[in-house]
Design goal:
The chain is of the alpha/beta class. The chain folds into 2 domains: 8-363, Glycosidases (TIM Barrel); 366-499, Golgi alpha-mannosidase II (Immunoglobulin-like, Sandwich), CATH 2.60.40. 23% of the residues lie in helices and 28% in strands. The protein contains 9 helices and 30 strands. The chain has helices at residues 36-44, 92-102, 117-128, 134-141, 168-180, 203-212, 244-271, 303-318, 350-358; strands at 2-7, 14-16, 29-30, 33-34, 49-52, 76-78, 84-86, 105-110, 152-155, 192-199, 220-227, 278-286, 323-329, 339-342, 345-348, 365-368, 370-371, 375-378, 381-384, 386-392, 398-404, 410-415, 417-418, 422-427, 446-449, 452-454, 459-463, 467-473, 477-478, 493-499. Strand 14 and strand 15 form a beta hairpin. Helix 7 (244-271) runs parallel beside helix 8. The structure holds alpha-L-arabinofuranose (AHR). Alpha-L-arabinofuranose binds at residues 18, 54-56, 157-158, 283, 329-330, 335.
Length: 502
């Protein structure tokens, strides 16, 4: 283990809200008003940014439809998601006000698919210009005389697919045209222009856009990778009712994030060796079959999904030199949600609790961890069952987050750290299918963990099967001597050693 110079950007812990199913109207709002329970929940886990209005919806969204008196706003059709009427009652001001209440930075996706460069430029002027113009007068009349200062700016979404079915060559030319007219205005932070990036392992997309777009014209490059059990859309499999084989497949597919990020980063390194350009994984999560009668793309969320989220966040932490933004899809009632709602009730999913546990890593200094993971084998699937990341926060406390994906066996791990006090918290449950319901909302939650032993040169941890543990070493020290795995005769215990970086 070794403290590096890399900071884990808090923006890795971002979320995403699209006009899709019950995400916005019902998830973020109740009868048109922002949900107080939701705002409190999102504030608690310190969500750093919220991406909106899509997704695919972004490339059919015309911002002028979503400003002014709500009863006068046009009714349009959400042709991407269900052909439902969009009354545009949740628009720019409502979104930006909500972000302010949550304490999150807004991350907007501009319409490149069906909008013009002028429309995109106007939206930015409307929000960000501090002087007097026709557009900013309009903003004042709509209740916000002061400039907003939105800086996260996606130029298109999935331009290889729903955003316009473009080739990377065509997209990069268009990007240059659009991005050129996206201006940074005085008095507010510079725009962080984000190139619409690849789908999963489409490395050619990254190669072409990195080659064609000068790096001074971009702040980041996005990447979308969903965990689909078959590796491809359409989604299959259950959210709470699935066999062990589906669990193992999901974890194997989730581990692919590491390879995919590594390979895209390597391509970016060729054009941007100093790693100035951020890789922003602005859509990720496990996507299974939609459940009946709950809205488009609604799925419950089990301990499996929490393990998967913890694994993915460890991967991002360990790639923090390049990954400086990410957004779980989506924040409420759609795909891999942290919150589910039903009328006036709201519940926190097991994945919510992972974000709560892991918030200690936000803007902390990354600690490089070297380890070899034992394997978990089920039928034809083999996965590495241990995932670890670590960081040191601004007041010197070390946090180590560990995931044991083995469903049956505990894992005996030796970590070469010390500290004034060591404490731990855990998320686990008897079954990987366990989940929280409106009748039983606290089945899978964070609990105190004391399954560790502080020794002279290590902390010995016994990670229960299917568990996520975060250890805290107050005023922590990474020890320089080698660590030794404890002996154990039990066949129910796997062993792992986390080494000091020599
Ligand atoms: O998150 C759901 C959809 O998945 C988004 O709209 C799109 O960008 C992706 O294909």
């Amino acid at each position: 283990m070794d403290t590096s110079k890399v900071v884990i950007s808090k923006h890795i812990y971002g979320h995403f809200a699209e006009h899709l199913g019950r995400c916005v109207y019902d998830g973020l709002l109740r009868n048109g008003t922002p949900r107080k329970d939701m705002i409190a929940a999102l504030r608690k886990i310190r969500i750093p940014n919220l991406r909106w209005p899509g997704g695919c919806f972004a490339d059919e969204y015309h911002w002028r439809n979503g400003i002014g008196p709500q009863d006068k706003r046009p009714k349009t059709v959400n042709t991407t998601w269900g052909m439902v009427v969009e009354d545009n009652s949740f628009g720019t001001h409502e979104f930006l006000d909500l972000c302010e209440q949550i304490g999150a930075e807004p991350y907007l996706a501009g319409n490149m698919g069906s909008g013009t460069p002028q429309e995109m430029a106007d939206w930015i002027e409307y929000m960000n210009y501090g002087g007097i113009s026709t557009l900013t007068n309009l903003r004042s009349r709509n209740g916000h005389p002061n400039q907003y200062g939105v800086s996260w700016w996606g130029v298109g979404n999935e331009s290889w697919g729903c955003g316009g079915d473009m080739t990377p060559e065509h997209y990069s030319n268009l990007y240059k045209q659009y991005a050129n007219f996206c201006k940074s205005y005085p008095g507010v932070p510079r725009l962080k222009k984000i190139v619409s990036g690849a789908n999963a392992d489409d490395y050619r997309w990254t190669e072409v856009v990195m080659k064609n777009i000068p790096i001074h014209l971009m702040w980041g490059l996005s990447l979308h990778y969903y965990t689909w059990l078959t590796g491809n859309w359409p989604p299959t499999g259950g959210s709470t009712n699935f066999p062990k084989s589906e669990y193992t497949t999901a974890m194997r597919q989730a581990w692919r994030m590491d390879e995919i990020v590594t390979k895209h980063s390597a391509i970016m390194d060729q054009y941007d060796p100093l790693k100035n350009i951020a890789l922003v994984v602005d859509e990720w999560g496990i996507w299974v079959k939609q459940e009946p009668d709950q809205g488009l793309l609604y799925q419950q969320n089990s301990l499996r999904d929490a393990l998967l989220a913890a694994l993915t966040l460890n991967i991002f932490n360990n790639h923090a030199d390049r990954v400086r933004g990410a957004n779980l899809a989506q924040v409420a009632n759609v795909i891999h949600s942290i919150v589910l709602t039903s009328g006036d009730s709201m519940l926190l999913t097991p994945t919510y609790h992972v974000f709560d546990l892991y918030k200690v890593h936000q803007d902390s200094r990354h600690i490089l961890v070297k380890y070899t993971s034992p394997s978990y084998v089920h039928e034809k699937d083999t996965i590495a069952c241990l995932s670890v990341s670590a960081s040191r926060d601004s007041i010197g406390h070390i946090h180590v987050s560990l995931v044991n994906m083995d469903v049956e066996k505990s894992l005996d791990v030796s970590i070469p750290i010390s500290g004034r006090t060591i404490s731990g918290q855990i998320i686990t449950s008897p079954k990987v299918t366990d989940h929280n319901t409106f009748g039983d909302p606290d089945k899978v939650v964070i609990k105190p963990f004391n399954g560790f032993l502080k020794q002279e040169k290590t902390v010995q941890v016994l990670l229960p099967p299917k568990s996520i543990v975060v250890l805290e070493a107050r005023d922590g020290v990474v020890l320089t001597s080698n660590s030794i795995a404890p002996e154990s005769n039990s066949t129910q215990i796997n062993k792992a050693v986390i080494k000091n970086k020599q």
